Amino acid sequence: MRGKWLLFAGGTLFLAAGGGALTYYLRQKPAKSVQVASAPALPPGTEVHLTGSIRAVNLVQVAAPLDGVAEEFPVKPGDEVFEGQILGRVANETLKETAHEAELEVERAQAKVNEAESQLIAARLEDSRAAADASRARIEFQRAERNYQRQQMLNTEGATPRNTYQKAQQDYEAAKKESDTLQSLSNTLQDRVQGVIKDIDLAKKTLAEKIQNLDSAKTSLSSADLLAPADGLVISIGKSAGEEVHKGMPDLITIATDLSQLELVLEPEPPVFKRLKAGQPAVVLIAELPGNGLPATVKSVENGKVVVEFSSPSTLVRPGMTAVGTLKLN
User: Fold this and answer.
1) Residue 261 β-bridge partners
2) Which of 58, 68, 86, 193 has its CA 20 to 30 A from that of 287?
3) Residue 276 lies in a domain
4) Which domain holds residue 116?
5) pLDDT value of position 223
């Protein structure tokens, strides 16, 4: 009887040990990986609809003409502009000071011309009076000279009183002195008039030079204006008022010149991107244009972007708008 109990206890211990080992083995054994089948790829010819942004093809840049500070821009992105329109201005203090100084120089030169012309008027008036006095004195002298010559002849013949002869001689000498004096004064005033005329010519020459300098300064100052090189639409302005700009900065203002040729830029997911190629047809759907869309062509497929080119029949379509491109997978 005792042997049977020992056999039963040993069997029980064996079963318990075997069960524990099995449980440990199952816990330690790695689970088999389950392979999930990938979603079926879209078949060729499937249409995909991708949203993107419209951009212009033909762009022109308005560069900064000189170093300075941007002033207020009278235009903003989205505004239509015409060729020659002022889009903005670059303030340059050196040019302003040069132009201001040139204006002062012109004013000073003009004042000298005005002063010289006033002096000429006064000199000519004085010369005219002196010439008239000299002419009168010359006539008096000629009259006195003739009388003196007559009295001198009569005195030689003893046919005139000596007092009369002496009086004629005194009148002649006084008239000659006055005539010579007034004629000398007239000659002096005539020389003065010629001198003032020369001063005026020199002053006018100086004024012309100052005006030329002012024109050059104004031209330089006006070159600070930012002018539209062609009709178009303002796309972007690279600086704000008060910011510094440097000469030659190319993208200060960007203008689209032909809104009939546009592009739609799309960024599809990689699985779609790799099944598109350049040259394939597309359709561009724009909310602002009713209908079935505009025919288009894929221009490029690179760097994760798909560029679709199309022609727009309406000026309502502008760069920056959102549109949908419809393409078929290859």
Assistant:
1) 311
2) 58
3) yes
4) 94-222
5) 62
